[in-house]
């Protein structure tokens, strides 16, 4: 039965990516090229795409699924992408290294979790000492959240074996008993209890309540050269975010279609995400608090100001 579940899991969340992966199209100079992680956090993007809101507002948008946030930051910096939906951790790391990007919109708060096997002897984060844990990347906010939680129990990186891997492979790796636990973003948290291959040990909102997660970034060059298109894109994001908040079932259908997952999984996972859009003072302060945490943990080497991180000209509240 366990082997059967692993096969089904492969068919549900691994096999579809071969058909769903989109590559950056450099042949259309008029298109806004947008990169995103394969996660429910980008639901507003999927809603706008599914409802053809961009086309209705005179925008041509091409989306590309990319597996890590650091790759999205690099692609935006190089101009291969114009806009990225990406985690705050690789964003802050990029800005601290002098990459000329800005956060122009908020996407979500919370939406991640630590997962263990069903009936696991791991019943508390304290039990993760000397265990093998999978994460979606060294530069991911999920790894920061994991290490922050472990520090509460005096567990350091020397006390655990952390393995970074493609997020699509993480649940099946737990199902195959190759790791003791994993931390990921939705829907790869909710898929574990749905497929009966894992149970949620702790949600990220219980690690740091209301923590910032994903943001919208663009290059300073794109801001300067295409302010009108960016304004329109971000207004659509704001309206689509409101749609996500008020139409959860319809949103679950659209996310299922975009990520080729499962409607029941999506209705579960969307409940654990807080969708936002404005980079108002409250969101900025939230990011600055998280940045201070990352500095204390050694993930960042310098403090940044709000002006260095954000451009509030569009969705500043």
Instruction: Could you tell me the CATH topology label of the largest domain.
Output: D-Maltodextrin-Binding Protein, domain 2
Low-pLDDT runs of 5+ residues are 1-23
Order of helices and strands: HHEHHEHEHEEEEHEHEHEEHHHHEHH
Question: Which range best describes the helical content: under 10%, 10-25%, 25-40%, 40-55%, 55-70% or over 70%?
Answer: 40-55%
What's the total count of β strands?
12
CATH superfamily of the largest domain: Periplasmic binding protein-like II
CATH architecture of the largest domain: 3-Layer(aba) Sandwich
Number of domains: 2
What general form does the structure show? globular
Distance between the termini: 52 Å
Number of distinct helices: 15
Classified by CATH, the class of the largest domain is Alpha Beta
Structural class: alpha/beta
The portion of residues forming beta strands comes to: 15-25%
Q: Write out the strand line-up for the largest beta sheet, numbering strands in chain order.
A: 2-1-3-11-4
């Amino acid at each position: 039965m366990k082997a059967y579940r692993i096969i089904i899991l492969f068919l549900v969340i691994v096999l579809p990516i071969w058909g769903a992966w989109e590559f950056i199209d450099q042949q259309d100079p008029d298109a806004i090229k947008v990169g995103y992680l394969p996660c429910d956090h980008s639901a507003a993007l999927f809603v706008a795409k599914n409802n053809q809101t961009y086309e209705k507002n005179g925008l041509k948008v091409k989306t590309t699924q990319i597996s890590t946030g650091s790759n999205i930051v690099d692609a935006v910096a190089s101009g291969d992408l114009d806009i990225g939906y990406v985690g705050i951790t690789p964003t802050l790391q990029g800005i601290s290294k002098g990459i000329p990007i800005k956060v122009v919109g908020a996407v979500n708060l919370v939406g991640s979790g630590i997962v263990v096997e069903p009936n696991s002897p791991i019943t508390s984060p304290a039990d993760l000492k000397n265990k093998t844990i999978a994460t979606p990347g060294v530069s991911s906010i999920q790894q920061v959240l994991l290490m922050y939680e472990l520090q509460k129990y005096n567990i350091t990186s020397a006390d655990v074996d952390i393995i970074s891997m493609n997020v699509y492979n993480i649940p099946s790796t737990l199902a195959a008993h190759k790791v003791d636990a994993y931390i990921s973003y939705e829907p790869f948290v909710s898929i574990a209890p749905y497929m009966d291959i894992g149970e949620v040990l702790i949600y990220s909102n219980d690690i740091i309540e209301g923590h910032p997660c994903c943001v919208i970034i663009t290059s300073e060059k794109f801001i300067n050269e295409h302010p009108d298109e960016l304004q329109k894109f971000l207004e659509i994001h704001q309206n689509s975010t409101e749609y996500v908040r008020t139409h959860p079932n319809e949103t679950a259908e659209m996310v299922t279609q975009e990520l080729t997952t499962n409607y029941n999984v999506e209705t579960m996972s969307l409940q654990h995400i807080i969708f936002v859009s404005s980079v108002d003072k409250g969101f900025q302060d939230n990011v600055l608090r998280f940045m201070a945490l990352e500095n204390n943990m050694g993930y960042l080497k310098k403090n940044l100001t709000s002006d260095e991180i954000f451009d509030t000209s569009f969705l500043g509240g």
